[in-house]
Specification:
CATH superfamily of the largest domain: Class I glutamine amidotransferase (GATase) domain
CATH topology of the largest domain: Rossmann fold
CATH architecture of the largest domain: 3-Layer(aba) Sandwich
Number of helices: 15
Radius of gyration: 22 Å
Number of strands: 11
Shape: globular
Number of domains: 2
Order of helices and strands: EHEEEEEHHEHEHEEEHHHHHHHHHH
Strand content: 5-15%
Helix content: 40-55%
Length: 335
């Protein structure tokens, strides 16, 4: 699929969002709200730069019932869409299972994609892009729970279950639910500026604007799952002291437990061994530094607790399957 030239930047960028029966409402409304906030911020700043004009479509006009039982009134069907599109957004949800068999909808997605500057999916919306042949020979992601299904059904797609979102040419896929907002913020940054994207994230009270390469597994989220308070407190302490001695013996001492009992309790509470949790926390921190800073790999290895660049390289190969230098080349956001 050839990438179209950018639409006339004097006009609002046209965003077409496809929903359908049994769609995940946040997959659609999350990105829509990001584009809405960015548009209002641009207008308030009187920059003269236009924002976004969002159109919601469905296989048929009328109420589209989402997976939580609410309905969204849709005025236009997807087949009536005409003209060029800046951004095509395909929402996800359990309803994609039925829609992949609708040859008319799939043909229309393929037709609209050819007229779009960029094409995006949220969660299982990737199934619809794959059915349309738009992900063949491309790296793509989806919600971790459906990655195996996407790979099995569409072997020509190079599925990666870990990233929050991926860009391949002018095709973007994201992990699902709130990650659709991360993708939309990345598109706002691409269209306008990092400052606007970060301001929009603040307005939306998002914790941060996560880079696409960040793992769907988050050590910060995992730190909230332990029910044993000393273990939960220790997890947060680890995240703030990645360059300390984080051996099992040292960690067990902090919570006044024997190393053997500590390892057993930690693994039961967190679902990871202490060593695996520490490595994931260090890798996650290093990934953010590689994406957002100009620090050398050696400096990052030191501040994230790996000690040496070689130790960090081996950890990246285990967790991310690429060495740090390749990861930085692929996902770096500052130059």
């Amino acid at each position: 699929m050839a990438s179209k030239r950018p639409t006339d930047t004097r006009e609002p960028r046209r965003v077409v969002v496809l929903v359908f029966p049994d769609f995940q409402i946040l997959d659609a409304l999350g990105p829509i709200e990001v584009f809405n906030v960015a548009t209002r911020l641009l207008a308030a700043g009187r920059s003269g730069r236009p924002g976004y004009r969002v159109e919601v479509v469905a296989p048929e006009a009328g109420p589209a019932k989402c997976s939580n039982g609410l309905s969204l009134q849709v005025e236009h069907d997807i087949h009536s869409v005409r003209g060029d599109i800046d951004t095509l957004v395909i929402a996800g949800g359990l309803g994609t299972r039925a829609l992949v068999s609708d040859s008319k909808v799939i043909a229309t997605i393929r037709r609209l994609a050819a007229r779009s500057r960029r094409v995006t999916s949220v969660c299982t919306g990737a199934l619809l892009l794959a059915e349309a042949g738009l992900l063949d020979a491309k790296r793509a992601t989806t919600h971790w729970a459906f990655a195996a299904e996407l790979q099995q059904r569409y072997p020509k797609v190079h599925v990666e279950a870990d990233p929050i979102y991926l860009k391949q040419g002018n095709v973007y896929t994201s992990a699902g639910v709130t990650s659709g907002m991360d993708l939309a913020l990345a598109l706002v940054e691409e269209d306008h500026s990092r400052e606007l994207a970060l301001t929009a994230a603040r307005w939306l009270v998002l914790f941060l604007k996560r880079p696409g390469g960040q793992s769907q597994f988050s050590t910060q989220l995992a730190s909230q799952t332990a029910t044993h308070e000393p273990i939960r407190d220790l997890q947060w302490w680890i995240l703030e002291h990645l360059d300390d001695d984080l051996s099992v013996e040292a960690l067990a001492s902090r919570v006044a437990m024997s190393p053997r009992n500590f390892a057993r309790v930690f693994t039961r509470e967190v679902g990871l061994t202490p060593a695996r949790y520490v490595e994931r926390a260090r890798v996650e921190a290093a990934r953010r530094r590689l994406e957002d800073s100009g620090s050398s790999i050696e400096e990052i290895a030191g501040t994230c607790g790996f000690g040496t660049a070689e130790t960090m390289r081996r950890a990246f190969l285990r967790s991310v399957r690429v060495p740090p230098a390749d990861y930085r080349d692929r996902f770096r956001t500052v130059h």
